[in-house]
Task: structure prediction
Amino acid sequence: MKENGKVTIYDISKKLNISAATVSRALNNNPKISIKTRELVFAAAKEMNYKQNRLAQALKSGKSKNVGVIVPYINRNFFSSIIRGIEEELGPHGYHVIICQTHEQMETEIEQINTLLNTQVDGIFMSISKSTNNTEHFKKVLKEGKCLVFFDRKMDVPGVSSVVIDDFKAGYMATSHLISQGCRRIAHFAGDLNLEIYKNRHEGYLSALKEHGFKPNPDYVFRTLSSIESGAAAARKMWELKEKPDGVFSASDYTALGAIQELRKMGVRIPEDFCISGFSNEPFTKYMEMPISSVDQTPLRMGKIAAQVFLEQVDSTEKLTIEKKVVLSPELMVRNSSDRSLLKVAGE
Amino acid sequence: MKENGKVTIYDISKKLNISAATVSRALNNNPKISIKTRELVFAAAKEMNYKQNRLAQALKSGKSKNVGVIVPYINRNFFSSIIRGIEEELGPHGYHVIICQTHEQMETEIEQINTLLNTQVDGIFMSISKSTNNTEHFKKVLKEGKCLVFFDRKMDVPGVSSVVIDDFKAGYMATSHLISQGCRRIAHFAGDLNLEIYKNRHEGYLSALKEHGFKPNPDYVFRTLSSIESGAAAARKMWELKEKPDGVFSASDYTALGAIQELRKMGVRIPEDFCISGFSNEPFTKYMEMPISSVDQTPLRMGKIAAQVFLEQVDSTEKLTIEKKVVLSPELMVRNSSDRSLLKVAGE
DNA sequence: TTGTACGCGTTATCAG
DNA sequence: CTGATAACGCGTACAA
Result:
């Protein structure tokens, strides 16, 4: 055994007095090799503690068996769950997952894409940053012949596949649910309406209102950030209205939480006086004493499906650029913050 | 521009009628190259949209500029925060982070290590799985001359650095805090005492009791899992005791949460009748209507420091195998579930 | 200051 | 079935 643990097929070939090419073939189970030689090689390989050098393999084949995943922040539950899905789907196929963060900055997003391409990844998965307003860097990925898959936050780029949830439907579902609970003046905490996902949630909200015969009231739509403070502020503004809402569909769980805290301070009873549904199914929503209804985006499934789309693409017969758009259905988790069905029974 | 975007230093050298070596040197800012040539090369490189192939570089240099991070599950807040810390510290140094999951299985842990070594990573960061009871695979990493750094869950292996928090101190702090709040019969939800971290928390708990003149009561120590159900079960068992505890230091936030829910059902007032502190500072603990006290393990910092340890190691003058043990101090986050200081004031 | 030649570890092609 | 040779893209002694 050599010092630094770097055993190559050459070392094996010398020991066995055969050529390195033969060793390589034996190791790769090439059919045109004698069983005897193969066994000899495997035995020697094991004995010498040989390991394939995937770097050399990659350089030769042009396939690194690495993929990059770019997200705003990896320690957000939603993103880390997606990454988990990708890893679990791709791992068994021999891929490694390289992670990158953008911190919501387009410049770093561009930089991350560049370094990933330098590293010769076989594909890139990503959720675009909030500040991204340009698609040049995405096109570059395609130009290099690499596969690109968007998840959740996407832009329309020809040739790029995407996996998202149906945000329109999610908004529609949540709002309809509130209506079914007896809410009549439903507000909306909208998030950044420049982002496709928030726009779609908003439209789903409007659609549900109209379909049930309610006239949307622009005063009921609040621009919010995804934070507790923003939710509290929105709640206060909401309560200054002449005709106070009796429910809200919030495009963020954090905003929903802030609103709940604020409304409680003001003595509003939930869900009796006011129903609320959040978005993302953040872990905390189900742990509260008053669990918060929320829309689950099934991130694990999202990651797995994104990975499957990638696999189809790379396995497919070469240059045929497929573009696949997968739209997943969200799941509404109804919890106490919007569930009036058990109110009368609860006589504790 | 070539078809597949694969521009090499050869393409540049041809275009400029110089040798590839000169191009390489110019690109690497080798001092012994004329400024004029350098500028010519840079201009051509930019124009031809040249990108360094890090794979080839890595094969040549023996340094891939990739590190692997192995954790049980990446979508646990604690782990994803550590990974974030590692990425943010290492990214600026040109490293990429490859993530792997063990699902708490030693066999997959071994496999992940092997494939990471095959990929020629420059180092491996990891938190060992619960079922790991053997150090052979760790030694193998060292034998290959790669740097290994444990974080949080570690084993003692000569030559391996580690970054952990002081679990003993954490247990001591939390327990002392409960005592300071007037608790006299303090229980402990212990987790898996075979794991070093839980053992240390338990010992910190015992130490605090003794130091304050309390005699530890074995009946007050409960073996628990890190789950809500386990916490509820422990609470019930606890309440069957003749002398009921009046506080608990839980080694897990989930267990603490389960206990709180169960105790409330039984009409126990928190923190008046019973104080509780959890562990990990999971996001949900601070969002509850009754925020839960918890020990913050400062995972972001932990990741950054682990990365720094790695950098010191690889930058150091070669084979000198350094072994660095960093022990971080935990931070106790005191919240309502164990804070009696404001009880009399609260007259709302 | 620049060019030549070689090697990193592997696989594919072409002979034999 | 097996061996020699080239090539993937880059960096670097050595020579000029």
Remarks:
- The two ends of chain A are 74 Å apart (CA to CA).
